[in-house]
Design brief:
The chain is α+β, with helices and mostly antiparallel strands and 274 residues long.
């Protein structure tokens, strides 16, 4: 009996210790699954997912709504632009504009009305006179002058080239012929003493073949002809003062200005510019 009582006491002690020992119940007890009997306020997992993870359906619907709103906004702006940018339908009354290949009448008029030209250059009825400049200060002007000279040289006709940058008398002569204008663009062409026009007119007449018709009346030089006296420069140093523009007068015993040369000490070539 004494042994049974001792065993009962030991078993009672073990039950009491297992009841009050939390570590024993947590580590050696059977895991308790989350059941519906637990208080939902103490279940942290459900509370976190409830408040911090929105439902997938609501997120998808909100994004789709925003995308649809943006699409409507851009489609509306595109439709407005298309309406404003569309050109009006062409009317039957509008006339077709001529192409670039068609030359205007103003470009052809100097050649067609050459006999009725008012602007004339006296003393040049038997030649072609081209006023130009050899200076390269203004690129466009120099290119126009060069192209016009090359067009005439391609026909191998003799040209009276008058460089206004080499002799100021040519500039004054051109201003008088054009009606005392303060500034005259270069180049300017006179054929048989009558004014034709500038670079645009000569290029247009050359392109349509009208310039070749009028140049048939002029004699043709040999291919590759170059003046032996000046090398086609049209000027040579003054033979009287050797280009110094000064002469000593023995009678008056002083230096005078040479009357034969221009301000640059040059005279026109006696062979090709007579």
């Amino acid at each position: 009996m004494a042994g049974l009582e001792k065993n009962a006491e030991v078993s009672g002690k073990t039950t009491k210790s297992s009841f009050f020992s939390r570590s024993f119940t947590t580590h050696y007890g059977r895991p308790v699954a989350a059941s519906s009997s637990l208080n939902p306020s103490l279940n942290r997992t459900t509370s976190i997912t409830k408040y911090y993870t929105p439902p997938a359906e609501s997120v998808g619907s909100s994004l789709k709504g925003k995308v649809k709103d943006l699409c409507r906004l851009f489609e509306g702006s595109k439709s407005v632009k298309s309406i404003t940018d569309t050109p009006p339908p062409p009317s039957h009354q509008e006339k077709k504009k001529p192409g670039k290949s068609v030359l205007s009448e103003s470009r052809l008029s100097p050649f067609l009305s050459l006999s009725n030209s008012v602007t004339r250059l006296p003393g040049t009825e038997d030649r072609i006179v081209v006023f130009f400049t050899s200076l390269r200060g203004i690129r466009r002007t120099y290119e126009d002058c060069y192209s016009v000279r090359m067009i005439f040289r391609g026909f191998r006709v003799w040209i009276d080239e008058r460089d206004v940058s080499m002799d100021s008398a040519y500039r004054k002569e051109l201003q008088i012929a054009m009606g005392e204008k303060s500034s005259v663009s270069l180049p300017q062409v006179f054929i048989m003493g009558k004014y034709v026009g500038g670079a645009d007119v000569i290029k247009s007449l050359f392109e349509i073949g009208e310039l070749a018709k009028i140049l048939k009346t002029f004699p043709v030089r040999e291919p590759g002809f170059v003046c032996r006296c000046c090398g086609d420069v049209r000027f040579i140093p003054c033979l009287n003062c050797s280009g110094s523009k000064k002469l000593f007068d023995e009678d008056e015993d002083r230096i005078k200005r040479c009357p034969d040369c221009n301000e640059n000490g040059l005279i026109r070539c006696p062979d090709c510019s007579s």
